[in-house]
Amino acid sequence: MTKSFQPSRAAIARLAALAFIGLTVTAPAYANGIDETAWAAIPPGDATTVDTPAVAESPDGSRLVVTRNADLTMSFSFNGGATKPIPTTGITATTQTAPRAIFFNGQFVLAHHGTDGRVYTSIFTPPSSFTPWLALSDKLSKFTNVSPSLAVLGNLLVIIITGQDNHIFEISLDGSNFAGVTPASEVPGNGLTTSSTAVTTILNTPSSPGELFLALIDASGHFRYTIQSANGSTTGWAPIPGSVTSSIGPAAVAYGEGRNRWADVATADTKNKVHWQEYDAVNGTWRSNGTAAWGTATGNMLTPSTPDLFHDATVAGTDNAALAIESTAGKLFLKILNESAAPSSAAILTSH
Hints:
The chain is mainly beta. The protein is 5% helix and 38% strand. The protein has helices at residues 9-20, 345-349; strands at residues 40-41, 54-57, 63-68, 74-78, 84-85, 100-104, 107-113, 119-125, 129-130, 134-135, 149-153, 156-162, 168-173, 181-186, 198-202, 211-217, 223-228, 238-239, 251-255, 262-268, 274-280, 285-287, 295-296, 308-312, 318-326, 332-341. Strands 6, 7, 8, 9 and 10 form a 5-stranded antiparallel sheet that branches. Strands 19, 20, 21, 22 and 23 form a 5-stranded antiparallel sheet that branches. A 4-stranded antiparallel sheet has the order 1-26-25-24. The radius of gyration is 18 Å and the shape is globular.
C-alpha cells in the first residue's frame, strides 16, 4: 500500500494544536517519503537532560516527559508545565541510564534501571503524584546497566531488558496494579546485544493483542529485528535493510490504520545524525522513500543518545509517530514523523 504524502487536514490541525500548546512549528517538510515536521522544542523549554528523554501520551493528548539528571535523579513535566524533580527515596529513584514511560491501562507508567541493578516501575497520576518504586526483580546480577524498553500486549505491560550475557529478557506485568509479575525469561531466538532492545506492538485490535516487534543493534553495529507472537514464538532475528551503523541501540513505535500497521525504528549514527526505517507489518516489507534504505531526519539536529519514539495524540482523530531527542546541548526536541487519520483508540493505548 502506498500512502499519500500530501498535507492533510489532520496534519494542518495538528500543527495548529502544537502551536497552541507552545511549540514553535513550521510547515511540514514532506521528505524521505514520509510526513515530517520541523524540529521543535518540547515545552516548557527549561528542561535539560543527560540522556534520551522519555515521552508518553494518553489518547486525549496529555503528555508526560521524563528526563535524567547529571546527579542520577529524574525530573518530569506534564502537559508543558514546569519541570519538577521526581521524588527520591534512595537508590530506587536514581538511574545511570535513560528512563522509559508509556501509557498503559489508563495510567502513565515509568520504568528505569536502578543503580542497584534492579528494574523499577512507578505509576504517575497527574498532575504530580508518583507511586513508590516497585522492584521487579531481585536478581541484581542478571541485567546489564542499560535502559529497559516498554510495550503493551493485550492486558500485559511487557518490559524488555538486556542481560549480562548480552541475551534479551522480558518481564510481564498485569493491569491490576502490577499484582502479577512474571519472572524474567529470555526472548526466544538467541538475540544478542550490549544495548537496549526496542519493542512495540503491531497488528493489535480491540479483539486481538497483536504481536511484539523487537529491534536491536548487533556486535557489528548493524540492526536486526524479530516478531514475537502472543504465544511467545519468534520469527528469528533478521537484518533490517540499509547501511546505517551505530554504537547505540534503536527505538521503536508502531502506528497506522487503527491496528499499528507500520513499525518505525530510529537511531543515531556514529556522527549523531538521526535516521529511521519503517516496517509494513501487513506485507512484511521495509520501506523508506520507496526503497529499503534508511531515511535521515531533516533539519540540522544531532543527538548523542538513542532517540525516543512515541505515539503523538495532540489532535484527536490522528495517529502519529513522533520522535524525541536529547540535543548535543542537552535540550529536548521533537518532530512528527508520520501522520494518518482516524485510528481506533486501542492502537494508541497499546503501543509506545
